[in-house]
Amino acid sequence: MCLKNFKIKKWNSIKELLNAAVQVLEKANIDDAKQNVNQMASKALNISYTQLPLHWQKTVSDSFLNDFDSMINRRLAHEPLQYILGEWCFLDFEVYVDKGVLIPRPETEDVFLAAEKAIKANFIRLDFHFADIGTGTGVLGLAMAKYFPESIGYLVDVSDKALEIAKSNLQKYSELKSRLNLIKSDLLEAFKSDSLDVIISNPPYIDSEEVKSLMPEVVDYEPHLALDGGRNGLELIDKLLKQAEIVLRNKGLLIFEHGHGQRNEIKKLLSSCWEILKEGNDFAKKERFFILKLLKDN
Fold this sequence. Notes:
alpha/beta, seven-stranded mixed beta sheet, two-stranded antiparallel ribbon, 11 helices
């Protein structure tokens, strides 16, 4: 595909350049073209998104034009906006993102907020131990530590790249460093029995055969290790359930995301030790997550 080069024209103002960029992205069928352009322009100007209108009538500098032109070309190649910006918001905080990790999504914010309610409702002690399995950027573990300031947690991933990015985000929130630990592990293999009170996870849950058919922003850029859930997308979830039965303490909670249409099959994987506290849907009313309680006396 021939990419637009904005450096070949003289622009009267930043606003004129941005309007042209929106048209280019729209012609390439990039969703939310205007928001994408404004976010990239703010990044190139090193200002907040809300300050952008104050710069619309300013002259286009060479340094801004070079950075912005590069970003537009990357977006036209379907690189996700979040990777281009290098950061993204989750709940009320920002994290560094790169190609080695999944991009934090609004659906996962809803899963965390449901988990927060479940933890409080089940009277788990305030200094509980938790693990964020498949931590990626670390957002779920960071959120747990922020919202439960006496908790002690573990950011767990099998990917060295993911742990490197999670470490960068942990450094960003230094007030949490004393309560969070980075661990390389295949799901829960690194943990002893009866060692955790809460497990939260966004595991791979896409069928191996379906991964290659995902939109270019996902299949060409996001790590397949974090997407591919094996046959029917349930291999990692089945493994997580079995390991969690051993690692969780009695009455501990397991919260995990899954794909739409997988709920009934996941129920078939549950042993009698599990009590279903919530079968959650996302804002599009699609099946999204489970909150389970482990009852080891069963």
